[in-house]
Design goal:
The complex is a heterodimer of chains A (110) and B (118).
Chain A lengths: L3 E4 L2 E5 L4 E7 L3 E9 L5 E7 L2 E5 L2 E6 L4 E6 L8 E9 L6 E3 L3 E6 L1
Parallel strand pairs in A: 2-11
Antiparallel strand pairs in A: 1-3, 3-8, 4-5, 4-9, 6-7, 7-8, 9-10, 9-11
Chain B lengths: L4 E3 L2 E4 L5 E6 L6 E8 L3 E9 L2 E5 L6 E5 L5 E5 L8 E8 L13 E2 L3 E5 L1
Parallel strand pairs in B: 2-11
Antiparallel strand pairs in B: 1-3, 3-8, 4-5, 4-9, 5-6, 7-8, 9-10, 9-11
Classes of the chains: A mainly beta (110), B mainly beta (118).
Amino acid sequence: KNEVEQSPQNLTAQEGEFITINCSYSVGISALHWLQQHPGGGIVSLFMLSSGKKKHGRLIATINIQEKHSSLHITASHPRDSAVYICAVRSGGSNYKLTFGKGTLLTVNP
Amino acid sequence: KAGVTQTPRYLIKTRGQQVTLSCSPISGHRSVSWYQQTPGQGLQFLFEYFSETQRNKGNFPGRFSGRQFSNSRSEMNVSTLELGDSALYLCASSLGAASPLRGTDTQYFGPGTRLTVL
């Protein structure tokens, strides 16, 4: 079992829909990251969180430390949101590394 | 402020050769991490450098090595290339911090170097 599991693997939505991508992890962490990767490879860090909830524009990220679960929500989705969304966890303690989920491919159709 | 730059962007090598990739972090950033991305394994952590010292290393063979210079620029080297080393190699920089705050700052990714091994 992977340390970081994302669901769904693929997601197709219509423009304007509310999107939720889930991430579950099995290890103790110091922080969780949500990343966005567009075709061509460029990765952008969307959120880094260790508790609670963060919001940036139409994007909302939440984390439940007790349940080892995080969600990324996109409100009023747009075709430009089409990308791969990757969850990554940073290990706690002295083992300082990022472990990545396999990613969720989101396609938003106009 | 300029972003993270990586050179070269594309590289084609043959099995058995070695390769050196370069990463220039955002000015003022002291931490550089390297990642490998393949279709099968996804993103995997290679190693992280902070102030010219390797702070952590992922589960890759010794053929993969790196270093960081006093200006925070970093290089990674892969010796005796194998077909399976074909991948997108990404570096990311962050301000970096001493423990216990390590891991709490945002990473900024470069565009990557796409390595093809024939």
